[in-house]
Structure formats: C-alpha cells, structure tokens
C-alpha cells in the first residue's frame, strides 16, 4: 500500500486524449509549413513515447493555435502589407522607362551586357547574356538565361520562362522597364 505522500510525488499519467490533441497540433503545424518533415517526425516519435503531460508541452509550445483576435490582427497586417507592396509597384511603374516589344521574328531578342545582344544593358547587375524575349504561339515569352542577379516579371523572379504582355514590369538585375507595344 502506498501512502498519500508517495502518490503525489509521481506525475499524472498521460491520457490518450492529451496525446491525441498534441498529435493533431503537430499534424496541423506540418500542414501549415511551420515544421520541417524531419522535425515533424521527431516530435511525433517523442509524443508517442511520452509518459507524462510535462513531456508533451515543449513539443507544441511553438505551434499552439492563435487566438481569434491574433488571427484577425495578423490577417489585417498581411492585407495592409500586400496593399502597400501593390501601391509601391504601381507608383514605381509609372516612373519606369518603356521597353518596346520588338517585331516578331525568327530569332529571340537577346538581352544583356554583351555588345552582340539585340538589347545591350550596360549595368553591373545585368549578366553578359541575361535573358531573351521571343514570340511563341502568339505569346511573348521572357526566358532567363541563368543570369546572376535574376530576371523578374511584375516583381516575381523568373527561373525559366514567363509569359509577358504589354504593361508588364520586367527587371534585369536592378534595371526595370515597363513593356509597351508602342
């Protein structure tokens, strides 16, 4: 028989409901991208091996759901931030020099620092052979040619190709232009 003193010295045993709650929080954290795959697996193993509630708390401390107030606040901040980025791009777009789309031809327009390119851009952030622009199937295609400082369309980096049209903002390194047909 154990004394009442001894029963209080042992931590409470973990219930299945507590373990299931922690596993659900871990799954949700992984689904939201808050945990890498390896971290998710390691924490799942620790949750399944845990014997006391105190062993579970550190596994989800950084993943606990936000309060409805915090969700609204972060959502509002995200929307304001997205709006300010769109506003900055729109403000900047009006100041950009035009880059006239060429007449479609059998060869792409090469863009870069090399004097042999069809469009030579003399700027340190532009690669020697930076990008090319061509008409394919009735669409203008901008292709990055492995440039060091990147090619962008409307603020998004182009890793291979992107369809572009009149009015788009294109960037080669730190040089930016507004595409125009005339």
Automatic annotation (TrEMBL):
The record, for SUPFAM superfamilies, names: SMAD/FHA domain
InterPro entries in the record: Cell_Proc_Reg/RNA_Proc, DUF1707_SHOCT-like, FHA_dom, SMAD_FHA_dom_sf
Q: Does the keyword Metal-binding apply?
A: no
Write out the entry's keywords from A to Z: Phosphoprotein
Q: Which residues form the FHA domain?
A: 109-158
Q: Does the keyword Phosphoprotein apply?
A: yes
Q: Gene3D superfamilies in the record, alphabetically?
A: 2.60.200.20
Q: What is this protein called?
A: FHA domain-containing protein
């Amino acid at each position: 028989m154990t004394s009442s003193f001894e029963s209080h010295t042992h931590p409470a045993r973990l219930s299945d409901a507590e373990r299931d709650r922690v596993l659900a929080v871990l799954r949700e954290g992984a689904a939201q991208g808050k945990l890498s795959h390896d971290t998710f697996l390691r924490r799942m193993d620790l949750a399944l091996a845990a014997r006391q509630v105190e062993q579970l708390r550190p596994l989800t401390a950084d993943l606990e759901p936000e309060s409805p107030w915090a969700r609204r606040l972060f959502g509002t901040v995200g929307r304001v931030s997205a709006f300010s980025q769109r506003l900055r791009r729109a403000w900047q777009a009006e100041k950009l020099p035009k880059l006239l789309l060429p007449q479609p031809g059998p060869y792409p327009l090469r863009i870069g620092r090399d004097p042999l390119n069809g469009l030579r851009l003399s700027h340190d952030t532009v690669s020697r052979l930076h990008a090319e622009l061509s008409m394919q199937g009735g669409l203008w295609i901008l292709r990055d040619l492995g440039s060091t400082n990147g090619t962008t369309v409307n603020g998004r980096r182009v890793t291979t190709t992107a369809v572009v049209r009149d009015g788009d903002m294109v960037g080669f390194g730190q040089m930016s232009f507004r595409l125009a047909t005339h």
